[in-house]
Amino acid sequence: MEWKHLLFETADDGIATITFNRPKALNALNAELLGELSSLLDIIAQDEAIRVLILTGAGEKAFVAGADINELAKCNALQGKCFANRGQSAISKLQALNIPVIAAVNGYALGGGSEIALACDFIYASETAMFGLPEITLGIIPGFGGTQRLPRLVGINIAKEMILTGKMISAAEAREIGMVNKVVAPADLMGEVKKTARSIAQKGKVALRAAKQVINAGIEVDLAAGCRMEIDAFALCMASPDAKEGTTAFLEKRKAVFKAGLME
Ligand code: CAA
Predict the structure, then answer these.
(1) Terminal CA-to-CA distance of the chain, rounded, Å?
(2) Is 115 assigned a catalytic role?
(3) Known catalytic residue: 220?
(4) Which residue is catalytic, options 71, 115, 173, 264?
(5) Which CATH architecture does the domain made up of 6-201 adopt?
(6) Low-confidence ranges of the chain (pLDDT < 50)
(7) pLDDT tens, position by position, 37-57
(8) Which of 6, 46, 167, 240 stands the most exposed, by the fewest C-beta atoms within 10 Å?
(9) Taking the domains of the chain in order of start, what are their residue ranges?
(10) What angle in degrees, to the nearest 10, is found between the helix axes of 205-218 and 223-238?
(11) Domain covering 205-251 in this structure, CATH number
């Protein structure tokens, strides 16, 4: 399938990459791009061969410089609501994907760009990347989940400072506040992300899915409820062929080889 604003690649090792591809507009998110992202995520969710997804931006300057301000400038309240709904629906699908998703932030990740990265499982960034939620400088607030996901990740006080000032922070600062896991030279970014993606892709699919689901769901509930969820997910893992293979391989002193799909 052809996409107008996205590039989509899949490789034999089960690693797929979506590249936001509007470099002349610093990969800004227009309504059409968000629709494509949503449709592509539906396809990826059904594809058993994909084990890890990477998101990145085309060109050297930007991951995604936010929602398309040309479109935002024309929105009334109802259109604004539709736009925010469209963005949040795509971004919620991203967070709910059963496979791990890594953001490879190669430049500006502003507004909706930071919000997409925040919905990924974790972020690696190039030294040149800049993060921020500058919506306040446009007279609006983040609309794609930034007021909710950022405080959950970095704490309320840091999130308030970023959102209320609209200031950009460097990749190094983003690493310091716990928003980014790793910062590398621009030329090394995709190599480092793929190395981690390949390491994850070799793990059992049932356990990867269970770990992601329990962490995401558990963070929203109290500790006791989260721990009960973990017991159920742990039991489900124990019933999987992956658990048999993983524990047997350890005892036989060999490397575990997990099946590629859930349906085999
Ligand atoms: N929407 C539309 N076009 C954008 C854009 C955006 N978010 N960001 C950059 N562009 C366009 C510019 O208009 C420019 O286009 P032209 O060449 O046609 O003039 C092109 O991309 C290159 O940008 P600049 O010339 O501005 O590049 P720069 O290096 O001087 O500055 C920047 C880079 C600091 C990222 C600056 O472009 C910028 O501040 N962009 C806007 C960032 C922003 O405010 N994002 C939040 C959007 S609102 C949002 O995301 C709401 C939400 O949560 C849903």
Answers:
(1) 26
(2) yes
(3) no
(4) 115
(5) Alpha-Beta Complex (3.90)
(6) none
(7) 999 999 999 999 999 999 999
(8) 46
(9) 6-201, 205-251
(10) 170
(11) 1.10.12.10
